[in-house]
Amino acid sequence: MISVNDFKTGLTIEVDNGIWRVLEFQHVKPGKGAAFVRSKLRNLRTGAIQEKTFRAGEKVGKAQIDNRRMQYLYASGDSHVFMDTETYDQTELPEANLSHELKFLKENMEVHIQSYQGETLGVELPNTVTLEVTETEPGIKGDTAQGATKAATVETGYTLNVPLFVNQGDLLIINTTDGSYVSRG
After folding, report:
1. pLDDT, tens digit, for every residue of 140-185?
2. In the predicted model, what is the mean pLDDT of the chain?
3. Domains 2-62 and 129-184 in one fold
4. What is the pLDDT of residues 114-137, one digit of tens each?
5. 3-state SS, one letter per residue, for the chain
6. Could you give the CA distance from residue 43 to residue 53 in angstroms, rounded to a whole number?
7. Which CATH code, of 3.40.50.300, 2.40.50.140, 1.10.230.10, 1.10.150.650, is assigned to 66-124?
8. Pairing relation of β-strands 36-43 and 18-28?
9. Which of 177, 159, 157 is nearest to 149 (CA)?
10. Is CATH 2.30.30.30 what the domain over 2-62 is classified as, yes or no?
11. Is a pLDDT exceeding 90 seen at residue 54?
12. pTM score, two decimals?
């Protein structure tokens, strides 16, 4: 058991028969009434995000998540195959569990597969990935209004807004949390 006063971003907990990851938290001490902790949690089974408030000092179960390093191999119908880099065991995950991650996954990429008591929960991507631009409009010389952007599609099929100087064939570093452009690779 862990106190909600000890919350940290990234901590995994058991609440209401679910496995949750703490995305954000805030300790609130109102002038009148008891202190509480306001948190934003992601359900690791469904991917749903929920805001939840706990009384200060309340205890919740700490969930021990196992992370195995695996390599993404290929898509097979409605599932995707990953291989353990040490034992060469293969694991298939349904496409429905990977809706966000598929925007950034490319073959032979190494990721961490999360499991809880033998149940596979999902894929943890690195914070950033480098992907090649496959399609974008050329930037127009002189069109340099501050903060101007254009759409670009990368090799995985994901489309994001990038600065005007990005061209087809460029490598981009993309933040996997929100899918935003970080820099050229």
Report:
1. 666 566 778 889 999 999 999 998 888 899 999 999 888 899 998 7
2. 88
3. no
4. 888 888 888 888 889 999 999 998
5. CEEHHHCCCCCEEEECCEEEEEEEEEEECCCCCCCEEEEEEEECCCCCEEEEEEECCCEEEECCCEEEEEEEEEEECCEEEEEECCCCCEEEEEHHHHCCHHHCCCCCCEEEEEEECCEEEEEECCCEEEEEEEEECCCCCCCCCCCCEEEEEECCCCEEEEECCCCCCCEEEEECCCCCEEEEC
6. 15
7. 2.40.50.140
8. antiparallel
9. 159
10. yes
11. yes
12. 0.72
Architecture of domain 129-184: Beta Barrel (2.40)
